[in-house]
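Task card 7
Instruction: Convert sequence to structure tokens.
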Amino acid sequence: MNKLFTAIVHKEGNLYVAECPEVGTASQGKSIEESIDNLKEATELYLEEFPQQEGQHPLLTTFEVAVNA
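Output:
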């Protein structure tokens, strides 16, 4: 069975870091695609050990803060 998850990707130095907020897994790679592929593998391994209960989805939203320029 396949399930859809979210990947948040940002760059740190020369690497891309991918995080899955639903599960809490993270991985990295030299490209966006590699970081997401590595995140998929990390998430699959995590879910084998710690199965996710149905109906658990975090709320993903945005917010605004004042930034002094």
